[in-house]
């Protein structure tokens, strides 16, 4: 119910978004609502705490900016952690743009409901674990599993989206997990405020946010806002990662054109193969996005939060995501350097298991 004298689209003083929603801007009651005056604790927060009590670590993947690789890193981190024999859950709360089912190779799967809640959809397959004999324990939940058609648009207003996010937290039967990775939509919207408030009682001291940026200023501007959001909502920042830090690919995979624009790829590759074959195996790199003002590392330093490292823009990561497969497993099979390893190591170090 709206407060007296409140703005027209008042979310109500008992709402989790009270005083913080965009519609609260300029309202005379904004301060009181933001401080929680008149708000009673949502009894479902206790339910969420109970549901997630056997989840050792909760990691929210955040970025103020869209398209910087949140879902990519969420998906590939989930694969990589599960490959180590850890029990992993991946929750996609990007209600309007759920890409996690595709990136996990689970497109077309549906969620099963039992008396005690929704069962996640599980990733299965051979060769996903570092120890080839083992099987991965990786459960996934996304609205994408509930849409009858992939092309259907979810055009929901905030309260309905918040309702589903809450239901994902109260109703999904994750069981005991080492890590729950939560992929979020871009920005610092009502959904983010709700998510953090719903998790308020469930977050432990090692839980928090992994904040993703690309190097250029247009991304850093929005990511600084995300870091301010974390500070305001008292969400611990586990670390910042700079994604698409540079373009990196073996030289032999590049295409070549002459000055007139004609494709001379095969002729160039043949010439190199004949004259200097080892050159073809070199990794060609390029700074596609200019690193403005020191990039994400400098931004992390200024905010006093850990910098977990850089992940290059690498076609093999894109391909793994398009195919719904594990990049780390394919790098291992091909004997290639795993470009995500520093990030995985940094995350494990920032959020050690309880008994460590
Ligand atoms: N390091 C990388 N190397 C290669 N491709 C990448 C990398 N990171 C992301 N991509 C590609 O960039 C595209 C956008 O990534 P992704 O969907 O993960 O971004 P997002 O931040 O989750 O987007 P949104 O904000 O829309 O949810 C995808 O096609 C993904 O495969």
UniProtKB/TrEMBL annotation:
* UniProt cofactor note: Binds 4 [4Fe-4S] clusters per heterotetramer. Contains two stable clusters in the N-termini of NUBP1 and two labile, bridging clusters between subunits of the NUBP1-NUBP2 heterotetramer.
UniProt-annotated location(s): Cytoplasm
Its GO biological process terms?
iron-sulfur cluster assembly
Using the record, list the residue span of the signal peptide; answer none if the entry has no such feature: none
Binding of [4Fe-4S] cluster, residues: 10, 24, 27, 33
Q: Which residues bind ATP?
A: 64-71
Q: Principal localization? A: cytoplasm
Q: Name one GO molecular function term.
A: 4 iron, 4 sulfur cluster binding
Entry GO terms, CC: cytosol
Task: State one Pfam family annotation.
Answer: ParA
Needed cofactors: [4Fe-4S] cluster
* Chain positions covered by the region annotation Disordered: 1-23
Q: In terms of domain of life, where is this protein from?
A: Eukaryota
Keyword set, alphabetical order: 4Fe-4S, ATP-binding, Cytoplasm, Iron, Iron-sulfur, Metal-binding, Nucleotide-binding
Q: Which PANTHER family match?
A: CYTOSOLIC FE-S CLUSTER ASSEMBLY FACTOR NUBP2, NUCLEOTIDE-BINDING PROTEIN NBP35 YEAST -RELATED
Summarize the subunit comment.
Heterotetramer of 2 NUBP1 and 2 NUBP2 chains.
The record's similarity note reads: Belongs to the Mrp/NBP35 ATP-binding proteins family. NUBP1/NBP35 subfamily.
> Could you tell me what this protein does?
Component of the cytosolic iron-sulfur (Fe/S) protein assembly (CIA) machinery. Required for maturation of extramitochondrial Fe-S proteins. The NUBP1-NUBP2 heterotetramer forms a Fe-S scaffold complex, mediating the de novo assembly of an Fe-S cluster and its transfer to target apoproteins.
Its name, as the record gives it, is: Cytosolic Fe-S cluster assembly factor NUBP1 homolog
Question: Which classification does the entry list for the species?
Answer: Eukaryota, Haptista, Haptophyta, Prymnesiophyceae, Prymnesiales
